[in-house]
UniProtKB/TrEMBL annotation:
Transmembrane segments: none annotated. It comes from Dioscorea zingiberensis. Residues 18-133 form the Response regulatory domain. This is Two-component response regulator. It is found in: Nucleus. The modification 4-aspartylphosphate is found at residue 69. Its main location: nucleus.
Length: 299
């Protein structure tokens, strides 16, 4: 098993853990900075969620964990959590003075790995490294599973080659080729995310701002998650310079994000801030609307 000190903070791990903290309360931000530095963490602070998102985009793999306040102006912690979940795989810890079960569940639904209640205690900050370690272990397990699948595929190819050689000797080359072609075509159809929109070339770089992502979500909401394809989404968004490849890539990330939130292969809800049938609490935060069998939001 990989030692945590080999990938973060050296042999003195968790010392050196790279933490990004965002909170619009400057006083709280200063206190958290001091507490985290006492834990020997490398701390970066900012007072706006949009600035935190920019730092994460500029410094790829520059942070090990993000700690974000929930209720902030312009972009709240839930929206930041959603965008981070779409674009990068980073443990996010939310915090708030609101310790209600409803608020905690909302953070978990959006993908937070932990929810801290203000004022945050030193003991809680000392233990945030556990979320980083857990994430690394999960990545290692996924890598091992991926390698196992690759080995199985390689074994299948060896068997196919052996069958091919045997079929040539038996004079049944054409039959074997026909059967293999049908099987490979079926596997390609099953594994394709969107047969209407294959893209193998490098995609143009597009920065998905909050406004652009909101347009995307509105378009998906209008079409229904099961019927949303890049071509139709692009037509509804009608954004100059945006290509179908850009939309296809973002749609794939969005579906993966929803899958992680729901814990099943087909998500039954997604975040749609402008949906009129959504449940809005007194602070303007929205619940996830449920989808019916046709992929549309139920009243």
């Amino acid at each position: 098993m990989m030692k945590s000190g080999m990938w973060c903070g050296g042999d003195q791990f968790p010392a050196g853990l790279r933490v990004l903290v965002v909170d619009d309360d400057v006083t709280c931000l200063r206190i958290l900075d001091q507490m985290l530095q006492k834990c020997s963490y490398r701390v970066t602070v900012c007072s706006r969620a949009s600035r935190a998102l920019s730092l994460l985009r500029e410094r790829k793999d520059g942070f090990d964990v993000l700690i974000s306040d929930v209720y902030m102006p312009v972009m709240d912690g839930f929206k930041l959590l959603e965008l981070v979940g779409l674009e990068m795989d980073l443990p996010v810890i939310t915090m708030s003075a609101d310790g209600s079960t409803n608020a905690m569940m909302k953070g978990i639904k959006h993908g937070a790995c932990d929810y801290l209640i203000k004022p945050v205690r030193m003991e809680e900050l000392k233990n945030i490294w556990q979320h980083v370690v857990r994430k690394k272990w999960n990545e290692n397990k996924e890598l091992e599973n991926s390698c196992s699948l690759e080995d199985s595929e390689q074994q299948r190819r060896v068997i196919d080659e052996a069958e091919y050689a045997s079929s040539v000797n038996d004079g049944t080359d054409s039959t074997w080729r026909s059967q293999k072609k049908k099987r490979d075509a079926k596997e390609d159809d099953d594994g394709e995310l969107d047969s209407e929109d294959p893209f193998a070339s490098k995609k143009p770089l597009v920065v998905w701002s909050v406004e652009l992502h909101q347009q995307f979500v509105n378009a998906v909401n209008q079409l229904g998650i099961d019927k949303a394809v890049p071509k139709k989404i692009l037509e509804l968004m009608n954004v100059p310079g945006l290509t179908r490849e850009n939309v296809a890539s973002h749609l794939q990330k969005f579906r993966l994000y929803l899958t992680r939130l729901s814990g099943v292969s087909h998500p039954s809800y997604f975040y749609s801030p402008l949906e009129p049938n959504s449940n809005v609490d007194s602070l303007g935060r929205l619940e996830f609307p449920m989808l019916n069998a046709a992929g549309q939001i139920s009243p």
